[in-house]
Amino acid sequence: MKTVSTFNGARELADGRVGLVPTMGYLHEGHLSLIETARSENDTVVVSVFVNPMQFGQQKDLETYPRDAGRDSALASDAGADIMFTPSVEHMYPFQHRTVVSVGTVAEGMEGAHRPGHFDGVATVVAKLFAGLQPDVAYFGRKDAQQLAVVRALVADLAFPVSVRGISTVREADGLALSSRNVKIDETNRATALSLSTSLMLVADAFEAGERKSRVLRDIVRQSLALSQQLAVDHVEVARSADARTVDAIDAEAFVAVAGTVGGVRLIDNVTLDPSTGTADRGTRLTRPSILYGGS
Ligand code: PAF
Questions:
Q1: Cα(138)–Cα(42) distance, rounded to whole angstroms?
Q2: pLDDT of residue 160
Q3: pLDDT digits over 1-25, tens only?
Q4: Which terminus of the chain faces fewer neighbouring Cβ atoms within 10 Å, N or C?
Q5: Closest protein CA for atom 8 of ligand 1
Q6: Which one is catalytic: 28, 31, 97, 118?
């Protein structure tokens, strides 16, 4: 695997069909599953690692975001990446940065409401990665379902010739969706954190048993979460996968999203529901502790 830090350098190395996995580094098994899928579908796999200042609300969050270039490089290479793209902030945002990509209503609810400006930062950096690296396919986790909708919207609106693939959430063995934030959840808060995925598995069961009404699915989540008094729930929503618009009933692919804070750690999770097959994507589960906790 080669590491480059300019768009030109990455384009010169890429050959044939190019798959891009955009990341902010500190890789875990969720990223590795994107890289492995990209490996199986492309000639060249590019993994970008860029902690994007534009998508952080708080300077402190940006400064404390975990970074470990050596670890990322070893993991990406083992998972099959050919190129690691690590631009500097100056390369990504040269001079006075003027253009901001804003996808409108797709970015307004749920995470967009909680983190104003966040999705403008995501859409802008993803648009730059697409323009600068010119991938044929780009891979994103379904865990960030609204982000996936934002990316699909920008590709459609700006006519990027990139196909976007949403890949199933990877969960820890107990069901907690993988996130670099999981390391901040201590033993006392772990059971509370698990209430998110537990409630979503109940939704998946209800959907697969035929329930299509959003109100009923939301109530299932709320009632299940009500048992966890330590959890401060931000939102429980049912939204279309295509544009993150909330819906009253599921007649096209949709996701049930939940967000909340436990012990000062904000967590999000969702399940994707597909009425054309009547099945829910519950994600996959690790069978051993995540590499986030220092294992290999
Ligand atoms: O999901 C992430 O890690 C980031 O939001 C992304 C897509 C790499 C853009 O910075």
A1: 11
A2: 98
A3: 999 999 999 999 999 999 999 999 9
A4: C
A5: 23
A6: 31
Give 184-216 pLDDT, tens digit per residue: 999 999 999 999 999 999 999 999 999 999 999
Q: pLDDT tens across 86-105, in order?
A: 999 999 999 878 999 999 99
- pTM attached to this predicted model: 0.96
> Which of 50, 52, 93 most suits a substitution to test ligand 1, by most atoms within 8 Å of the C-beta?
52
Locus of tokens 């999981």 = 182
Q: How far is the CA of 47 from the centre of ligand 1 (A)?
A: 11
CATH, domain range 180-293: 3.30.1300.10
- Cβ-contact 245, 103 below 8 angstroms: no
Please give the CATH number for the structural domain made up of 2-167.
3.40.50.620
Backbone angles phi, psi at 55, to 5 degrees: -105, 5
Q: Whose CA is nearest to atom 9 of ligand 1?
A: 122
Domain ranges of the chain: 2-167, 180-293
pLDDT at residue 30 tops 70: yes
The residue type at 212: R
114 is known as an active-site residue? no
Distance of CA 200 to the CA centre of its chain: 17
